Amino acid sequence: MKVFSGIQPSGTMHIGNYLGALKQWVELQKKAECIFCIVDLHAITVPYQPKKLQENILDAAICYLAAGVNPEKSILFIQSEVKEHSELAWLLNTITPIGELQRMTQYKDKSKQFKGSIGSGLMNYPVLMAADILLYQTDMVPVGKDQKQHVELAKTIAKKFNSRFGKTFKIPEAYIPKSGAKIMALNNPKKKMSKSLGSASYIALFEEPVIIRKKIMSAVTDTGRKITYEPKKKPGISNLLNIYSLFSGKSIQKIEKDFNNKGYQELKKSLANLLINSLKPFRQKRKEFIKRKVYVREILKQGGKKAQNIAQSNIQKIKKRMGLI
Ligand code: ATP
Ligand code: MG
Asked: pLDDT digit string (tens) for 55-75?
């Protein structure tokens, strides 16, 4: 079984990225052939600072490693170092209906968020993502819920290609965790926690204890006093309960019971302590990898070579099908 997934080096990795994606990656590497990518070409589809990009890329690699991605088992590399991703994206663009791209939720949300400075790269983002996935004949794509629509589009594109040019691509499936697939923003629990929403929306995977406490204590909650899981009526408290459950391993019902007759402040205090302890090993490992940047760069270089070998051989077959060779 082949697994592919990526995270954009668009800022600081947060607990949403971990629960929705990274945690599954670490599990899947035990039983599948995994390829994990730092998708820098995706990160440049919204306004960004070129001077900070290299730093963000290395930081993403350190984050993957600190979260448990094992470079001896999985291929870890930078997307832009394997040119076949861009090449295949162009080829797939020629068969992707524009209407499909315009109706993608992420495109609609981000074009509102960054209005006035949107390039066509943002609309074509899912085509590049389809290329990332299909280039490696992927079976499974572990992602958060927000990316399901893009994986569905990758399937549509693969089927379209296969019927037009003959069977070439495997049809991939999204692999979405039952819980943790959509962690909401702390400062706006109706929106998804996101790097691009700014640091008040998230708890970074390596957040320092004082900041964790500050952010959790000031997380937006709902009117009323009762601690119950009702995502529609009480999105703030429900999100905190969900995070609590995922890091403690306790069921939401058990936590509701434990906090019966207690106030929001008490839940928040307890959640802050839980997160401070749960994220401690990540903080420590990250500090170790920061001291070994040369080693991290070498992992990325070796990973890039391995990925390129697979990509080169596959793109030849694809171009042959299309009559380009
Ligand atoms: P950006 O705001 O730049 O889009 P992001 O926080 O959405 O950043 P991505 O790099 O786009 O992060 O996504 C990386 C992975 O993390 C994807 O698999 C995505 O589905 C998952 N993910 C992102 N946000 C969440 C979240 N709030 N809850 C669960 N999974 C998430
Ligand atoms: Mg995103």
From this structure: 999 999 999 999 999 999 999
